[in-house]
Amino acid sequence: MANILEVKHLNKSFGRKPVLHDISFTVQKGRIVGLVGPNGAGKSTIMKTVLGLTDFSNGEILVEGQTVTATKHTSLAYVGALIEYPGIYPFMSGLDHLKLFATGDDQNQRIDEVVTELRMTKYIKRKAKSYSLGMKQKLGIALALVNHPNFVVLDEPMNGLDPESNKDLRNIITNLAKKGTTILISSHILSELEKLVNDVLVIDKGRIVSQSSMRNLMNRGKKYLVIKSADDAKAKNLLMAAGYELADGDDVRILETDAQKLMPILKIYVENDIEILDIQHQQSDLETSLLTLLANDQVTE
What we know:
Radius of gyration: 24 Å
Number of strands: 13
Number of helices: 10
CATH topology of the largest domain: Rossmann fold
CATH superfamily of the largest domain: P-loop containing nucleotide triphosphate hydrolases
Distance between the termini: 35 Å
Order of helices and strands: EEEHEEEHHHEHEHEEHEHEHEH
Largest sheet: 6 strands, mixed
Shape: globular
Helix content: 25-40%
Strand content: 25-35%
Mean pLDDT: 88
Number of domains: 2
């Protein structure tokens, strides 16, 4: 599959302080890629640099095979973006903003589509100065999507959105990817990214720590066998006495390893007349997998 974005050996400093260190990664067409990492790791800086909004010390950025710099970014004509906070004119309506940015003969149709998808119809004609944080965020997303870009860069797009709006945005992004649009997205709401992205770029201290599929990253985390019974307290005591490794908490969560098989565990329940109510296999979520990865990262500043 072809790459829509290639970043090669990118370095950037603010004054004498290096902030990006030899950054290299690729983004394939039609994929939803999550850029994650701690606050201050360099996520927004990478996105701004990719979009030609800020210069860099050395390296190379290619979008659709064409070089991007702070002074050369013709290849970004079909790229939509929301970086940090949307730039909104308070005395213009949301509709006026979209009319200002929309291009092409079918702009009215595209405006109607994005307004409907983001459920903005009730307030789109009101002046933006009356908008709540969530409304402004939706307008920023709408501005990024209205021209049907091939590549979309979204920096913390879920800020200020309620759960219903988050779900709407997930559906929009998923549908765009199915049609071939590529999305690079960052968010501190990892539970939302977990439901959405295909691939994950992990950045820490200005360096790419990992680039993998979401599935492979999740598989690095721990897996647990969760057993609910009529007497969990008794079961925990018996299992620990038998040498099993249990996770902290009131429920019975047994770390799955080659040495900790299901049948001997169930035998303990049966021999002690403990009624089993439910058995589940539980895998670490994205947050746990990410924290594990960062904890193992030995890169220092």
